[in-house]
Amino acid sequence: APRWRPPAAVSGPLLADPMAWFGAEHTALMAGVAQACEARLTQLAWDLAGSTETYLNVRGLYDGWQRMHEQALALCRETGDKLGEAVLMRGLLEVTTWTAPAGPGPAMTRMRDGASQLLDLSTALNDPIGISDALATLAWSLTADGNGGAQALALAESALRTAADADYLGGQARAYHVMAIIHGEDDPQAAHAVLEQATKVAEALGNAHYTTTITQFLGAAKAFCGDIEGGRELLERSLDMARRLNYRYHETFSLLYLSKLFAATGDERARATAELTLAHSEHGNFGHHLADALSVLGQLDLAEGDPPAAIATLERSVRVWRTRGSIPYLARTLSVLGDAHDAAGDHRTARTVWLEARELFREISHDDGVRTLDGRLTREANGRRS
Questions:
Q1: Distance from the Cα of residue 139 to its chain's centroid
Q2: H-run or E-run covering 206
Q3: What would be the CATH architecture of the domain defined by 282-386?
Q4: Which tens digit of pLDDT belongs to each residue from 308-360?
Q5: How far is CA 38 from CA 25, 44, 53, 74, 85, in A?
Q6: What is the pLDDT of residues 181-220, one digit of tens each?
Q7: 267 burial class (0-12, 13-18, 19+ CB within 10 angstroms)?
Q8: Which InterPro entries does this UniProt record tie to the protein (predicted)?
Q9: Are 111 and 137 in contact (CB under 8 A)?
Q10: Element (H, E) at 127
Q11: 290 close to 313: Cβ distance less than 8 angstroms
């Protein structure tokens, strides 16, 4: 939409603290989107809606974000504004995947379907920015299947090339981030190498939110590589950064991986950190973090000799993972749930749960997971025969 630029004397003080300005004006901006939709001013509606995304994301105003985008998206589709449709779909994919209540079907499946639609739309528009974002989102969605690593990595690399060709730093940042996620906990060294490249983009981009993201992922990667102190220092630094930004979703991620690190090293702070992660996740509808925090707490219950508490917590984690559609996480949590039933003396249920976990690991070609479950099932069978 056409923009009127205020004089520097006016814009300067406002740009000095844009979050404060959005804090004062976001309600009026959202009302403006609704009014633009009523007046069928399509370009104004989607342009104004898109401008609020970063603020609404950081401040956790997800319900209003989703309603506003859905209203403007409907208008774009009615009036045939394909660019507006693409812009709003990108924002909606973010909020409906990570911060909305469970919807129809697994969240990651809906993410993949939406990203595929966005890629088709952006390709038809010949919009490299939209294409790069769609490729990165599609790559991310494939991690839920567990066995799409090569395809996901190829998509993320294509997203990076597309963004670089378009001088789109934000797209390069997103592509590196997704590459690190694809490598994940199973290949933390590769994730760490990608994140080292991402730090250079962070410096060029000068975006505090992205810098926080890379810092926390680097911390997690270092910890999984065995550099416990280096990982803890970066995770604690990213936690401070997220709190200075008042960015609850980022804060919750840092807390989650600190709780995992504390649990792995026997640090007494593990439970309190995981419980705070859980509280933030419940309040913000952070489904992925919610399921993961419950898994950490269930493992702590089991380690502390309380199988009934572990079973209750891990069963809740499994229920949430099923709504997410992230097979590797579900399989790992089922494995621990089987351990909890075994510790409680319910060997029949333990076997049933382990069998499901082994089948999931087999489906995603996770050989280590299959071998581990084969060992548990063999020991359980030998125990029944003795």
A1: 13
A2: none
A3: Alpha Horseshoe (1.25)
A4: 999 999 999 999 999 999 999 999 999 999 999 999 999 999 999 999 999 99
A5: 20, 11, 21, 12, 17
A6: 999 988 999 999 999 999 999 999 998 999 999 999 999 9
A7: middle
A8: TPR-like_helical_dom_sf
A9: yes
A10: none
A11: no
Return the residue matching tokens 């609404």.
56
Quick one: which H or E segment has residue 325? none
Whether 327 contacts 146, CB under 8 Å? yes
- The whole-number pLDDT of residue 149 equals 84
pLDDT tens-digit readout, 130-152: 999 999 999 999 998 886 788 99
Tokens representing 88 are 């709003």
What's the pTM value of the predicted model, to 2 decimals?
A: 0.92
Spans of all domains in the chain: 18-50+57-91, 282-386
Report pLDDT digits (tens) over 5-34: 778 887 787 778 888 889 999 999 999 999
Which long-range contacts does 59-66 make (Cβ < 8 Å, 24+ apart)?
A: 59/23, 59/26, 59/246, 60/99, 60/248, 60/249, 60/284, 61/26, 62/95, 62/99, 62/100, 62/284, 62/285, 64/30, 65/91, 65/95, 66/92, 66/95, 66/96, 66/100
Contact in structure between 169 and 201 (CB atoms under 8 Å): yes
Radius of gyration of the chain (CA): 22
